[in-house]
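dumping this here before i forget
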Amino acid sequence: MSLIVLGEPPSIANQFLNEIRSKEIQQDRLRFRRNLERMGEIMAYEVSKQLSYKECMVTSPLSALQSRQLKSQPILITVLRAGLPYFQGFINYFDQANAGFIGAYRKEDGEELTINLEYLASPSLEGQEVILIDPMLATGKSFIRSVNALLNRGTPAHIHLASLIASPEGIQHVNENLKIPFTIWTFSVDEKLDDRFYIVPGLGDAGDLSFGTKL
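structure:
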C-alpha cells in the first residue's frame, strides 16, 4: 500500500479543506460543492504526476517543440451521490477520460454497518489506471465493495483511491482487504470513527451538505 497525504505540506488546499469542515461555511451549499470540486482538481493534478507519459511534438505559431503528454487517460469512477462534486474536479482535469458510476450506500443495523450496491456503470478496466473517487474513506467498506464489483469489468493495472478525508480504521481495512496494486490519496487522516461510523472530526455527511437531506 502507498498512502499519500496531500494536506501535510501547507498549501491552498488546507484553506479549502478548512472551509469544507466549517459548520458555518457549510451553510452555503454552492460554496461547499465548489470547494469539493477545487479539491478534486488539486488531487487530480497530484495523481497525474504518477501516471505514464509519452514524447510528443507540439507546433506553436512560431516553432515546433518536443514535449510530453499522457499515454492514456485514466478511468474515473465515482460513488453516487456524495462523490459528484469531487468527481467534477477530476474530470475538469482529465477531460477526455472515460467514466463510471457506482450507486452504493451504507445501511446501519445496530453496531453493524453493511454496504449496499445497487447500480454500476463502467467501461472495461482491464490493464487501466483507475481513479476511484469518494470524498470520505470512513470504514473502508464501500471502497472494498466497489472495487470487488468493478473487478467484474476487468483487472486494473493500478487503482488510486481518492478520498478527501480518511480514518485510520478505513485505511487499515483497505490495506487488509485490497489485493491488487493501489494507492490511497487523501488530504487528511483524521482521528477516528465514532459509534455511527462517521469520521471525527471529519465534516459530516458530504452528500447531504451538497444536495440536501435524504429521506
